[in-house]
Structure to design on (397 residues):
């Protein structure tokens, strides 16, 4: 994440030494023995800009150490699996941390809920009805968020990930206000659309930063990033971001990052939803169908229900285009929106028939298609026919 690391041109640039001359002496010694006994740990490959994945100092250290006279050096790289496939051809071994197993998730819930059998059973029953939230719990941080909100919301879980992270953001804002001993205002924080007046500008600044970060594929924001993009200095993070100091420079060089990637994606989608209607459509087109923007698109759909004329025209063209993968992508957003009227609109564009008979469906696809069909059954006058090849939710088909 460190901007100094990202701009490095030589190994000396990334050595945390007191001076450049000291860093050069250290590397001269390692080069003398051609990297023998040198272990390099690169933490966060997925947080590098994509252009640094293909041509950079880091790529050379991993794939071509001989070009740096470090033939015998060893490298350990950490990354999310989704961003590391470009390394598979040049690494000798790979270890993937899968997170909690189903048994470990259950054990974790039992421990956090203090062994209260009724609360544990209630949580498990609700997770069975909310497969997307249940599936996210393999990540320990997400499991912790789910447990926290389950207790905070009187032992009731939200239905969608959009609702889950919206509640998390509201909780952070309430905590921020509580720290300032303003209990009265804390009680009034019930919606992102109706925040106390003195929080609104700070919240807008944080959402603006989240949006720029998503569009630039950036998760860390040094002061230089804010200046380059003409963004206001973050004077108040509202408990939604954390700061860190660069460890490679002697001068104070703070950077900021969001508490959770999904928090950044949620705030970015909220920012887009507040743009004028004519500006939302071009952003929608940019988000739609792009895996990198999948969560932002789903959250944006939840905030807006795609209700404006411009967005509905785009939705109609997607449905009428007949691309099944794009249609499923749209269904994912509709599920997060929990908007029967949007399902009814899409159903009308389908002409009374949904044909996915040649399209294999993942469990998530099946969930979203099932939600769509259930809404159509409740709202559509006349027949609506669905042809499905295979549907599965967990182990049930």
């Amino acid at each position: 994440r460190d901007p100094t690391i990202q701009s490095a041109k030589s190994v000396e640039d990334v050595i945390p030494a007191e001076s450049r001359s000291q860093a050069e002496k250290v590397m001269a010694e390692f080069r003398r023995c051609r990297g023998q006994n040198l272990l390099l740990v690169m933490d966060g490959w997925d947080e590098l800009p994509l252009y640094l994945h293909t041509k950079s100092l880091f790529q050379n250290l991993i794939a071509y150490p001989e070009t740096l006279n470090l033939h015998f050096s060893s490298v350990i790289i950490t990354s999310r699996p989704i961003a590391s496939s470009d390394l598979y051809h040049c690494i000798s071994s790979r270890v993937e941390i899968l997170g909690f197993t189903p048994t470990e998730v259950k054990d974790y819930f039992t421990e956090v809920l203090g062994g209260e059998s009724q609360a544990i059973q209630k949580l498990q029953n609700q997770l069975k009805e909310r497969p997307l939230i249940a599936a996210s719990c393999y990540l320990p941080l997400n499991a912790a968020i789910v447990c926290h909100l389950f207790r905070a919301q009187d032992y009731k879980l939200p239905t969608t990930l959009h609702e889950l992270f919206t509640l998390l953001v509201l909780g952070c804002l309430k905590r921020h206000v509580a720290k300032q001993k303003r209990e009265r205002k804390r009680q009034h924080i019930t919606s992102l659309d109706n925040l106390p007046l003195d929080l609104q500008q700070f919240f807008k600044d944080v959402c603006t930063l989240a949006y720029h970060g998503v569009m630039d594929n950036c998760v860390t924001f040094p002061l230089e990033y804010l200046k380059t993009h003409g963004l206001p200095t973050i004077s108040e993070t509202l408990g939604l971001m954390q700061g860190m100091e660069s460890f490679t420079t002697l001068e104070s060089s703070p950077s900021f990052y969001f508490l959770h990637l999904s928090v950044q994606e949620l705030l970015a989608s909220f920012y887009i939803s507040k743009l004028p209607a004519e500006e939302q459509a071009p952003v929608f087109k940019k988000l739609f169908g792009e895996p990198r923007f999948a969560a932002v698109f789903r959250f944006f759909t939840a905030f807006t229900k795609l209700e404006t004329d411009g967005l509905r025209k785009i939705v109609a063209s997607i449905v009428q285009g007949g691309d099944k993968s794009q249609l499923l992508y749209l269904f994912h957003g509709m599920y997060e929106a929990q908007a029967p009227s949007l399902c009814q609109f899409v159903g009308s564009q389908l002409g009374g028939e949904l044909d996915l008979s040649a399209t294999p469906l993942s469990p998530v696809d099946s969930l979203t298609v099932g939600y769509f069909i259930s809404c159509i059954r409740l709202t559509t006058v006349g027949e609506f026919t669905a042809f499905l090849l295979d549907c599965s939710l967990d182990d049930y088909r």
User: Anything to note?
Assistant: The two ends are 43 Å apart (CA to CA). The beta strands are 39-43, 74-78, 220-222, 241-245, 254-258, 353-356, 385-388. DSSP finds 19 helices and seven strands in the chain.
